[in-house]
Amino acid sequence: MRLTRRAALKGLAALTGAAPLLKNLARAGALTDVQLLLGGTLASIPGQFAELANGALSHALDLDTPLELTPDIGQDGVRAANLFDANSAPDGSTALVLPAATLLASLTGDSRVHYDFGRWTPVLVASTTTVVIARTELHKTLRSRLTGFFHDHPVRLAVSRVGGPELNALMGLSLLGLRPVPMPGYVDSSTALAALHAGTVDAVQVSPYTLDRPLDDVLANLPEGTSAIYSTGDLTDTHSTTIPIFMEAYQQARHRPPEGPFYHACQAVSAAADTAMAIALPMLTSSDVVTRWSHACSAAAADSGVRSWADMHHFKLATGENAAPFLSRTVPDLGATLALRRWLAVNTPRWREGQETRHI
Q: InterPro entries recorded for this chain (predicted)?
């Protein structure tokens, strides 16, 4: 049928009149009243990231106003995670920015925890590395170093508190056949390293972002008789690539690969400790909302201010589908979870009395 001039004009008028309606429909799926629920204060790692990334996230999410930042009075994110899991609708209006401590609290069965982070959808992860430094005898092989100095007495490990983030090192040293004793009160890496230099502790756990100077500088100026015995996470963005990973350290010390439920629990704890920060959406969030947030997190990760901050802390940022494996590694199977809880139940009372770790 031939289109007349009159029909064409009518059609054009109809489209013109429909334009506002189409625009409203396009914005009907827009996110509103969007907030970042922070697992820490504005000075914490989640808070620092949120303030730096707010502009890029808000723009990529096509928001009319900047994201609302809702900090937590605590530093471990447990309270924020409880609120997030209980109250956040899966509509994309709330995302949680959590630190490693939020994951570790759940893994260890902290009585305050009422959330299940394994159900969340991660859209960004900032991963880091952890290095365990210990006082050892200067022998040729790692096996002789580990069994030399520590053969007849336990290893005093500097920790912030019993059951704190140094659980990663506590489990690793225990798996290596040593007898670690957590020495609480070392709230930061500087005081822990000072104690190592003073000889009041035998081992410390450090991460590049917890240090006030480069990791290589720390390793180059360790007291005599100490060395980095293993690392977890990824050290490829530093020059310290000669440090063995835990698997290598274990094989050198025990002449066999690690295995069993407790080792798998240790892997989950290490993965949690090396997840310095993550952004997650609630369970049942629709795929289109997840895609929108993933795109926004990719835009934030590309922001020059965020990149500089991540480089300064030696964080590696993974977004969207690339973030999912990082969080999945922190979820142990039932056997590993039970092994970890049993080990903690046996040893927590001992640690409070200043006693060495008992193997189970």
A: TAT_signal
